[in-house]
Predict the 3D structure of the following.
Amino acid sequence: MSDVKFELYYWPGIPGRGEFVRLVLEEAGADWVDVGMSSQEGGKAVMDRVGRGPVPAYAPPLLKVGDLVLSQTANICSYLGERFGLVPSDETSCLHARQLQLTIADAVAEAHDTHHPVAVMKYYEEQKEVARARAEDFRAHRLPKYLGYFERVLQENPQGGGKYLLGQDFSYPELALFQLVQGLTYAFPNAMRRVAPRFPGVMALRQRVAERPRIAAYKNSPRAQPFNEQGIFRRYPELDDPAS
């Protein structure tokens, strides 16, 4: 366990991509502060200032560890997971963990694009008709394809017994998969009820992660920010399967 203070910089009020980092920090038992939730300075001003440096950050989340500032969600989660032993230490396992984390990042981006398929800077209401078509394709094809991939990873891991993504124990990409499934369930409750029985391993993993003591304590605390219609995963009934 490290005595270094970890500072997370992300927009307050939404789980967003910052939540993937928060989960790793919580599971690791790290000493960390959510600066966006506690700073009196404007959020954008803080992140612009912190994100400068030899390699400027493009966008939050940002993680500051002493003089080191990292950006990109998958990069931060990999750094923390390896630092806190949330992945086997051999090079192959570390690379495969990053591979899984990056695949989840791809799924998150596609989920976001269901409600903003034309332009990020335009309001949802300005692109609703295109969003309907994009969401229909996502629900029918992309959502089950991603979940099916992770189901296959679980079942084909020779050491995991159908329970673990890597090796024979928990690893940090499982936190990201948990958050992905949580977000998809929030945004597309009808579609997820339809497809969930096809992916029992993924659904069981989601439940196991939810029951991990540190994750359960965090999710039941005021520090955990609920999903809402300002973040990546948004619940617009017209983008979900029709209610059965």
User: Anything to note?
Assistant: The domain at 91-239 is CATH 1.20.1050.10 (Glutathione S-transferase Yfyf (Class Pi); Chain A, domain 2). The longest strand covers residues 6-9.
